[in-house]
Specification:
The complex is a heterodimer of chains A (357) and B (551). Chain A has 357 residues and is an alpha+beta fold. Chain A is built from seven helices and 17 strands. In chain A, helix 1 runs antiparallel to helix 2 and helix 5 crosses helix 7. Chain B is globular, with a radius of gyration of 24 Å. The chains are: A alpha+beta (357), B mainly alpha (551). Chains A and B meet through helix 1, helix 2, strand 7 and strand 9 of A and helix 4, helix 9, helix 10, helix 11 and helix 12 of B.
Chain lengths: 357, 551
């Protein structure tokens, strides 16, 4: 007897995606919009009003059209039309004026709503975050100066403003559940505000095309209560005396957020736009050895050995020494000047954990 | 036996010799390559834009297949970005803008005004060769590294990317001149070459539409030319107009780009409106309802379209006053557009409605354009647009206009004037099946995109959040059905040229001059100069015999 029940085949390990662990947002009763998690209810109101008007007009137009096609279809090839009417002034006035009135209502409603969305209230100004966009990740600076990456915590019921800046090309800050979107233009500050009204984790997309990994430029927006905010969950970085496993785990998480959009950060995870982290360190007789690498510094090619100092420099000043190897030669990495020592140390611990014999 | 053969030939030849027309009046490669006949130039355009359309469609299919899986099925992100850019650039610059004016406009418009040719035939040929040069450069740009900026070429990304942006920029610059020359030519033709008795308000609405388009082409296209030149200079010499690192302003690029590209939407769609106006009238055998209002609304749209470009930039941080003006005028442009749609429906009402294939394509247009136009109203509302901007809702909206309306109007016009252009009829049954397939496939492709767009799916994404999977997959299935419909259409249209089933002298019973001219028209269009004594669309003048007579 053959045992028909077999172990399910093991799925190959999948690339982690930036949105792992974020639940799909609930959809509202009409099926078109994610449930509103912010304060801009007028967007939903006008959207569904316009939608309903569109459906009414669509039904009238196609109804009359299809009725005519059936009722007045040509049955003999030389059939003459039932009417030769060329115009009807009252009718034409009606179908000019009624739509005009309707669209003017929509215009006024929409303009009023947009004023609300672009006029930042005092309370939001006092709770200002900075969101720095670059190809292809987000850095958030909290009102108290601490930082988080590709993840931001905001407090429920407290209006928040994001000052938006870009260090390279156009991006856009888009949180569908909050109904807010604003382009981020390099060389100028833009701002966006909203008041989160519902606990949960929401998508933050980059909505303006920004190059290779545009679709992976993603952040999680956590709406939390005051107690969670006070713990500053974004700022818990294992210190040098923390257990190594914890530091490696944190380093891996951070690498997934910041680095995987360009580097292979493990044999199965990350992109191949920059040099792979696999093989950066190897173990010889149980001792860690840094990889020898040709780099270009100030136009001169030299060989260096990968170590903590080189990695730290490459993160903060990536253009100082550029890897000479093809195809990475000539590709510029965006710099992470603001990454602090504790976080870089965890990243390096993670890189070292990739070493095998 | 052998002696009989010439005798038979002598007997047969007078009857069998086809009447001389523009297709058979001269032969050989040079007679086509150097032709000054607007109809032959129109046919060369038709071949060119059709190839561009099929190439653009192929890229679209690749895009849709890739998006079957949330992590992407076929390409890396970098490859995907190039393919969606190719799709957009080919469709917009090589197909949608030149398609109707270049092919059907060229063939039909001079016939409709009763002219022997366009006013400037050599310029007309130059327009075509500029189009060809632009197309060759666009293909060259693919070979030289491709381009990955989206068809909008937004700075500063288009300044930094290490791809063939200058080459594709030059292609667009040259294509722009092709468009300007065509517009210029048509303006002069409409003003100067109308037949005796053809007053402005006796012109068929297709001519009005082509005329309004031509004005836009001449006035708006230079701005695009200057913009791509500036991008090229900026890339080559770092002059700092758009690059913020050099003190430039990326938003200025957006203003320049949309100052052309919004009127360009009407450069694309007005000729489609013109085709639909003609077809609705002929196939309902009824004068067009509200002729003057439709004619004026074409001009109104042409004027207002210059004042609404900022509605592509509501999220760019423009001032409140600018938002106010652009949103207001955007809603305003809805009115002349609505008037057209209502007038077409009123024309069908109590007509003698022939449900043949050109009319089916027209009906498909009327339904799809209703959706495309109405969803545009949703996007015009400022606060709603801040949510929907740059999502699939916008993608669906403009495909309902660009593909569902303009391409379908082009197909409708092609089916309508095919017997006029070639003197042959295609297989009507296959045409109806193809039309139904395209209609179903199109709606299945783009209706789900409205839903995922309003739920937040951003456009130009090579990978996506898994909750959108069902919508993307429905859309991909729709695209395959749409592709099958188009393939069938290409097949039976080409087959009709081989089978050569004779068309009627006046296949559909039109009364405008294009149907008064012999089928296919002779080299100089009319056997004798036409004189217009009737109002336009006066079906009491229809010669029913011409509908029965083989051409």
């Amino acid at each position: 007897m053959i045992n028909l029940i077999q172990d399910p085949p093991q799925d190959p390990p999948k690339d982690a995606t930036p949105w792992d662990g974020v639940p799909a947002p609930d959809i509202d009763a009409w099926g078109q919009l994610p449930v509103q998690a912010g304060n801009f209810d007028h967007v939903d109101g006008l959207f569904y009003f316009t939608y309903a008007v569109c459906i009414v007009f669509f039904v009238i137009i196609t109804g009359v059209l299809l009725y005519s096609c059936v009722a007045h279809r040509r049955k003999t090839w030389d059939q003459k039309p039932l009417s030769n009417v060329t115009h009807n002034t009252p009718l034409e006035v009606v179908w000019t004026v009624i739509p005009l009135i309707i669209v003017m209502i929509m215009f006024a409603w929409g303009f009023k709503g947009s004023l609300d969305m672009t006029t930042v209230p005092q309370a939001a100004k006092q709770n200002t975050y900075k969101a720095t966009a670059k190809q292809w990740n987000w850095t958030f600076t909290y009102p108290n100066g601490t930082r988080g990456y590709n993840e931001v915590y905001i407090e429920i019921g407290k209006p928040v403003q994001f000052m938006l800046e870009s260090t390279d090309v156009l991006h856009a800050f888009y949180v569908p559940s909050m109904r807010v979107k604003r382009d981020i233009v390099p060389g100028r500050y833009q701002s966006v505000w909203f008041e989160p009204t519902k606990l949960g984790t929401y998508h933050l997309f980059c909505a303006e095309y920004c190059g290779d990994d545009h679709s992976r430029m993603y952040a999680k927006v956590h709406v939390v209560d005051e107690a969670t905010m006070e713990k500053e969950p974004w700022n818990i970085v294992p210190e040098a005396d923390a257990p190594v496993a914890e530091r490696i785990a944190y380093g891996k998480e951070l690498a997934g957020q910041l680095c995987a959009s360009c580097h292979k950060i493990s044999p199965t995870q990350g992109m191949d736009n920059g040099p792979s982290w696999v093989g950066m360190f190897t173990k010889v007789d149980g001792k860690l050895v840094g990889r020898q690498r040709e780099v270009i510094e100030g136009g001169e090619t030299k060989t260096i050995t990968t170590d903590d100092a080189y990695i730290t420099e490459s993160i903060r000043k990536p253009t100082q020494k550029i890897v000479a190897e093809e195809p990475y030669r000539g590709r510029n990495m965006s710099n992470f000047e603001t990454l602090d020592d504790a976080r870089i140390a965890c990243l390096i611990d993670y890189m070292k954990s990739l070493a095998d014999n | 036996m052998t002696t009989n053969t010439p005798a038979i030939d002598v007997q047969k030849s007078p009857a069998a010799a086809p009447r001389e027309n523009y297709l058979n009046c001269s032969k050989g490669f040079k007679s086509w390559a150097l032709t000054l006949d607007h109809k032959r130039i129109g046919l060369m355009y038709l071949v060119g834009v059709s190839i561009a359309f099929l190439a653009g469609g192929l890229f679209a299919l690749l895009v849709r297949l890739h998006l079957w899986e949330p992590e992407g099925m076929l390409f890396t992100n970098i490859e995907y970005n190039q393919i969606f850019t190719l799709h957009g650039a080919f469709m917009v610059f090589l197909f949608v803008i030149p398609a109707i004016p270049g092919s059907l406009g060229n063939v039909v418009m001079p016939l409709m005004v009763g002219a022997k040719d366009v006013a400037l035939p050599k310029l007309n040929l130059l327009s075509f060769y500029l189009w060809l040069a632009g197309a060759v450069l666009a293909v060259l740009a693919i070979v030289l590294g491709g381009f990955d900026t989206g068809w909008t070429f937004y700075a500063p990304y288009s300044l930094y990317t290490d791809r063939a942006i200058v080459t594709i920029g030059m292609a667009i610059f040259i294509l722009g001149f092709s468009s300007i020359f065509t517009g210029l030519n048509f303006i002069v033709t409409v003003h100067k070459l109308r037949a005796p008795g053809m007053t402005w308000f006796r012109m068929p609405l297709f001519v009005w539409a082509i005329y309004a388009t031509a004005i836009l082409q001449v006035l708006a296209t230079p701005v695009l030319g200057i913009t791509v030149l500036l991008v090229a200079f900026e890339r080559l010499y770092n002059i700092g107009i758009f690059d913020p690192r050099l003190g430039g302003d990326p938003v200025l690029f957006e203003h320049f780009f949309w100052f052309y590209s919004h009127p360009a939407v009407y450069i694309m769609v007005l000729p489609a409106f013109g085709i639909i106006s003609e077809l609705v009238s002929v196939h309902s055998r009824k004068p067009l309802f509200g002729y003057k209002l439709i004619a004026f609304s074409s001009i109104a749209i042409a004027v207002i379209s210059f004042l609404v470009w900022g509605h592509h930039m509501f999220t760019s941080g423009q001032s409140t006053y600018a938002m106010f003006a652009f949103s207001f005028l955007t809603f305003f442009v809805a009115i002349p557009t609505a008037i057209k749609e209502f007038s077409w429906v009123a024309t069908v009402w109590k007509g003698s409605v022939a449900l043949n294939s050109p009319m089916l394509y027209t009906l498909a247009f009327l339904i799809i354009f209703a959706i495309g136009g109405l969803t545009g109203v949703i996007l015009g509302a400022l606060n709603v647009d801040l949510h929907l901007h740059d999502t699939y809702f916008v993608v669906a909206h403009f495909h309902y206009v660009m593909m569902g309306s303009i391409a379908l109007a082009f197909f409708a016009g092609l089916h309508h004037w095919w017997p006029k252009m070639f003197g042959v009829m295609y297989n009507e049954l296959q045409a109806k099946i193809a039309c139904a397939t395209i209609f179903i496939g199109f709606n299945l492709t783009f209706l789900p995109q409205f839903v995922m767009g309003s739920r937040g799916m951003p456009r130009r994404y090579a990978t996506y959040v898994p909750e959108y999977v069902p919508y993307h997959q429905a859309s991909t299935i729709g695209a395959v059905i749409l592709g099958a419909g188009v393939a069938l259409m290409v097949f039976y249209l080409l087959a009709s040229l081989l089978i050569r089933k004779k068309a009627k002298e006046n296949q559909w019973g039109g009364v405008t001059l294009d149907w008064i001219a012999p089928t296919p028209p002779p080299h100089l269009n009319f056997d004798e100069e036409p004189k217009v004594v009737h109002e336009v669309y006066d079906y009491s003048t229809l010669d029913y015999d011409s509908m029965q007579r083989d051409c």
